[in-house]
Amino acid sequence: MEPSWSLHLLSEILAAFSTDDPENLRNVVNRVAESVEAEVAAILHPGGVQCCIGLAASERERLLEQVGSRPEVLHLTAGRLRLYWAPLGGSSLLVVGRLADAFDIEERSLLRAMARSIELSLRMLEAISAERQARLDASYQASHDPLTGLPNRLLVLERLGQWLHHPPADGASHTAVLFIDIDRFKWVNDAHGHAAGDELLVHVSRILQGSVRRDDLVGRLSGDEFIVISRCRGMAPMEELAQRIITAIRRPMRVAGMELSYSASVGISVADALDTPSSLIENADMAMYHAKAMGRGRHCLFDPSMREQARERLALEEALRHGVSHGAIELRLQPIVQLSNRQLVGFEALARWNHPQRGLLEPGAFIAAAEECGLIEEIDLLILQAACQAVGRWQQRPGLQQLRLSVNVSARTLGASNLVERIGPILRSTGIRPTLVSLEITETSLVDDIQLTASTIQGLRELGLKLAIDDFGTGYSSLLYLKRYPVGMLKIDQSFVADLGRDPEDEAIAQAIVSLGRALGVRVVAEGVETATQETRLLEMGCDDGQGYRYGRAQTVDVIERDLLQSGVAEGVTVMV
Question: Residue 383: which pLDDT band, with cuts at 50, 70 and 90?
Answer without folding.
Answer: very high
